[in-house]
Amino acid sequence: MFKVEDIEILCSESVRQAIEENIGRKSTDIALDRRVPHASIVATQVKNLQKARTKLPSYFAARAIVPTLAYEQSSSEECAERKELSGDSVLDLTCGLGVDALALSKRFRRVVTIERNEGVAAVARENFRRLRVDNIEVVCASAEEYLAGCTDHFDWCFSDPDRRGAKGEKLVRLEDCSPNVVTLMPRLKQIADKVCIKCSPLFDVDEAFRLFGDCSVECISLGGEAKEVNIYIDGLAGQRLSAVAIGIGKFSCKAEDRGGVQWSCIPEDFTRYRYITLPDVSLQHARMVAAAFNGKSDVWSNNGVALSEQRPEGVLGRTFEIEAIYNIDSAFKRVIKGVKAEIYRREFPLSNAEICKRYRCSEGGTEKWCFTRIGEKYVAIKMNKI
Known about the structure:
Number of strands: 17
CATH architecture of the largest domain: 3-Layer(aba) Sandwich
CATH superfamily of the largest domain: Vaccinia Virus protein VP39
Radius of gyration: 24 Å
């Protein structure tokens, strides 16, 4: 973890100039270059900044200090800015690199963010200075310490609990993470009108309803990849769900209206279907495929695909035109043998590598194939991009 003396080196004019001069070089070359002051530190920062260019564009542009571990555990700016919080003041219990606090600073007059590690807190302060943000106060303390002595009241309290255990193991249960927001919830409700908790993309949405009762839960995806689950405890009645595919759209419904069926129907004849849609991962994780595709596709599976005669409109997912549907049998090997393809899988028992080995095809070509299950049948669907 970063130490205060490391920050002093990184803030020195010679090192900042060296980072700027070497921003486009390979970190391995920088580390071996005797002309570069504090070459190993400069190499690490250049490497982290290069990685942050897409995920944290503001940090890259400001040549912010980016510690390796803090970068790996941080949100992307795009996800951070998606959260539906706004008001006059907000308390962020988990500063880290400060990406969420930076996003909150654009929606609140005052942001107080808590960081228990002195070095990381110093990094956050320096980065906010470089980012020219002046409405964020960084407090070095544990969340528990700050809450015990807090006399302020906030519109919102935000927390992204640490999901790593003492030995580095991944934690999924919210009660095991730090700070333990489940135990702290009575206190959080005393000092804030509303509470937002960011969870792992693996977090079970129904666990939020079990722990907190009436609340809103949203599953966030970016580029087809699950990114986070956010819980909003906002005092409103009912249990509400949203699936958000950043840059594509959003679908919401009451938790009770999701629909629990695995399949809408099991068709005997697949040939009449012209379109296949791969529901976005945010819908799948929220178990909302049935609610989202009802009336828009003819056949759908909660964790698989959706088929339709007419092209579905306004759904969260990728839609392709169906060229052909094949049953997975011995004859299928002759169809795909030697083909180079982009392979998609939905409810299929083999990995991409196992598919390629068994059917003697390979990945990387222009053809698109989806291996999936419809009812009890495994099929391969050759698709064309629309």
